[in-house]
Amino acid sequence: MLDAGVGPCIYEETLYHVAAQSRHGQPIAIMHRDPLILQSLTHFMGQGHIISGSINFGSQVGLSRFTVLVGGLPEFDFEVEVFPSKMDYKLDYADMMAEISSFLTALALEYLRSTYHLGRAVKAPEPYDIEWLILLRHVFRQLENALVRISRRPRRRLHREERFVGPERIHRVDSAVRRAVLQGKGRGAYQPTFWGYIHAQVPERRAVETLDTPEHRWLRNQLLDIRTHIASLTQAEKLLSRNPSAPLARQKAVLDELAMMEQRLVRLLKLEPLAQATGDPPVGFASLVLQNDDGYRQAYRACMALRLGLRMEGGPLQLSTKDISQLYEYWCYLAVVQLVGELLESHVDPKDLFRVSAKGLRVDLERGRTKKITLASGSSGQPNTEKRRITITYNPVHQSATGSQKPDVGLSLYIEGWETPFELILDAKYRLDDSPAYIADNGTPGPPVDAVNALHRYRDAILSGKPPHDRRVIFGAALFPWRDTASTTSYMTNRFYRSLTSIGIGALPFLPGQKDYVIGWLREIIDQSGWLLADKIQDHVILRERHLRSMAAQPVLILPLRGGEKELHLLESLRSISLPLRRLGPRRLAVSQIAFYLPGNGDRPGAITHEAKVLDIKIDASDQMTGAISGNVKIQHQHQEPTPGPLVSYILDSIRPLARPLPLSGGLGSFRWASTVSLKRAATAEELWLETEQEWALYDELKKAGATVDLKPLQASVINPYDIKGRAELIVADRRVRYEGLAGFRIADGTGAGVVYKGNVSAVLRELGL
Predict the structure, then answer these.
(1) Which of 239, 244, 594, 640: CA 20 to 30 A from 303?
(2) Residue 214 contacts by C-beta under 8 Å, 6 or more apart in sequence?
(3) pLDDT-derived band at 2, boundaries 50, 70, 90
């Protein structure tokens, strides 16, 4: 036998078998407010005195009250407490509910579920319908009893109303009666009296008692408003009940409760004090009767309570909540937004966090891209630090050729200098596998393998909208409820923790008491340069090799136009330019693009402002003109003396302005070389020497580490597409670093001695002590 005050531990998502038998053969039944919890209970073999079946609370957590009826009468109540099976009840679950409620209590509430938590009423600017109805259900009996007491001992008031009576029945001849007689007012034939001829009946204002008081009018209007509100909620619930995915038994129970409340309101409105009240109370009405008299005071407080909101902080109210799996998803989104705001040192306004969708008695986060929050990094005071901002979306919808993809949380990281954002997806999974076989394979408990593998599908299916449909997602993490303890192995040994670093797909534990892993992961992503993040994108090996080679193997010839915009307009019309072959050096026949420098004037400095792709290259050995000639910038026209020696002619595509002009404070006296990469990324003239992605990755990381970096150009030689080398020497203190292609990074001291080679940027940073 169990102790009367202590029962067994009940957990969510667990099947429990229940059986009850009456001792004296009387019919027995078990009642619960939620009909779904009892749907599998039946009487054993048709015998009414035995009932049995199974109960599963699903994802519900909290208190649950049952009533046992014997012979149709309540015998006793018993209450059980359902505990979460994947998180600590008193710590993680309570903290999760507190954090959600701090933003919006109604987000966690449901009107009818199998469990409840204790809460209280508080002042709120705009309570939601579900809060209003929960409060109404709580105060309805109090309101009903108060109105019945009022009907038994109502407060009346004297009301002077005009009546026509015979002169002999006038109680008191006052000024109003005399004035009516003198003015000839009245009804019936004239008859002689002491005052002369008057009507058989004259008007008299006599004081009578009435129940049509301002207090009763106010109470009646409150009940009418409640009835209208219930009718609108009933209509909304009926529309929702047409959804086949909704549990019909629970919907019917809600509609039955609403109908019962409306019927009781109709009976209350027929009480004599309310039935005789007509119209509205006076404007600015205030009454001590409502606040002090018995019955009136209780009814007034019950009506005013409906204007409050709810808080889950313990109290007399029974508040049902959403399934814990749904609450965990909401909490993950809200917690991630807060963490990103802290990491970016950006203020998070709770009003911007979400937009709710209120349908009848349901308040949910609105899904999709209708509500996004953007957080930007604060100024760090370091001129070389890349500015970044992150846009966070709850349940974004990505359309793909194979259907819609809907991860729980989407993050778009925008880094200065990069046009395309780095996309991350997070999937909240309230699922935990702690079986011995799982731990043997993965190291620690964690999410089911299929939950992690779903992230691969997201990364492959979420593509850019236009061909060639490139991937947009670089990282995907499943968030699940688990925490490290002194008795468990660190999650850092888990396979999915390591895979998140190696291939960008994995899982992280996330609870109110276990945020360290997610914080560290987000901080690492936010602090990394765009180049290092780009290196972690999982491309096909052939595509990645082709991209790296093509970008760095595309030389860009930068030409100054001394004639300024006039010379530029001439080139736009000719679409070709001829230059002396011998002056251009070994890269002259590999030019993929030409950029143009326009000299400055009083309003703006000189800058590289336009570019054009090279469509074709021709060699003219006859010393004849084939188009416009630029001999060290100055274009020579047909009537001018031709430039001696063979010419190289570049056939140009349309000339386009650069997305970001590159000012050159020192001007440009002659041509110079760059690459597609350096022209796109450079912010100074010296940075044009950084022609490869590897050089840029190292350069960005050195700046982020706070190192002072000087750049020294090397000779612009012919590019070997199979072994692309850098053209800049990066000088950090007394160390000189250059990228040597397949050999890696060459590091030497100022004298050229002490040469070492490192294969990647991280190894170079360690060698430099950064």
Answers:
(1) 239
(2) 281, 282, 285, 287
(3) very low
Report whether 409 contacts 393 (CB < 8 A). yes
- Position of tokens 């251009």? 584
Q: What angle do CA 298, 300, 302 make, to 5 degrees?
A: 70
Asked whether the beta carbons of 229 and 132 are under 8 A apart, the reply is yes
Contact partners, residue 638, CB within 8 Å, separation at least 6: 625
> Under a CB-based contact definition with an 8 Å cutoff, are residues 631 and 580 in contact?
yes
Relative orientation angle of helices 214-240 and 129-152, to the nearest 10 degrees:
140
Q: What pLDDT, in 10s, does the model give residues 109-152?
A: 888 899 999 988 888 877 888 899 999 999 999 999 999 999 99
Domain 539-685 - what CATH class?
Answer: mainly beta
Query: Residue 670's pLDDT is what?
Result: 85
Instruction: Please tell me the distance from the alpha carbon of residue 422 to that of residue 374, in angstroms, as a whole number.
Output: 14
Residue ranges of domains in the chain: 10-83, 128-153+213-307, 324-538, 539-685, 690-770
Query: If DSSP codes are grouped into helix, strand and coil, which group holds residue 473?
Result: strand
Residues in the chain: 770
Least confident of 168-182, 259-273, 290-304, 643-657: 168-182
Alpha-carbon distance of 83 to 59, in angstroms, equals 10
Give the pLDDT confidence of 15-45 residue by residue, as tens digits. Answer: 999 999 988 889 999 999 999 999 899 987 7
Q: In sequence order, what E strands does 184-227 have? A: 187-193, 196-210
Q: Peptide bond preceding 468: is omega within 30 degrees of 0, i.e. cis?
A: yes
**Closest of 200, 126, 112, 207 to residue 159, by C-alpha:** 207
3-state helix, strand, coil in the chain (%, to 5): 35, 30, 35
Residue 688 phi, psi (nearest 5): -65, -20
CA 515 to chain centre: 18
What CATH number does the domain located at 10-83 have? 2.60.40
Confidence of residue 671 (pLDDT cuts 50, 70, 90): confident
Closest CA to 536 of 550, 520, 522, 525: 525
Pull the structure tokens for residue 204.
């008299």
